[in-house]
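just leaving the lab so this will be short. below you get a single protein, a line of residues and a line of whole numbers that encode the local backbone shape. id like you to explain what the token line says about the fold, in plain words if possible. thanks a lot i owe you, the record is right below:

…
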Amino acid sequence: MTTATANSKIADKLKFNESGLIPAIAQQHDSGEVLMMAWMNRDAVIETLETGRVCYYSRSRGKLWRKGESSGQLQKLIDFRYDCDQDTVLVQVDQLGVACHTGRRNCFYFAARDGEEVVISQPEIAVEDLYGKK
């Protein structure tokens, strides 16, 4: 069986929602830090497995989104896992740079503390520097 055929069989096992998407959680492979959550479609799953570079589906743009294509903040795939219901993906990655489009290491920087919203981390890089926008 070719790698492409094997990757297609893996994608066939997954349970995509009515929009053809599956939630994908990105986790730093060595620290266990949860970096972000995004969506994948079948093509993104196969591309991720074939290239070793994590690819998602951008709902706002309506197309594949290769993590880091505009920011340079790449995610190298270390392990591709899915849950017991086969309806959620966990990609263990080596995150090069920050994961969040706000310039933070991860997207989970809001916390509920004593009934208040608290920002628990600051950007490590300015958004302008990430995307070359002013």
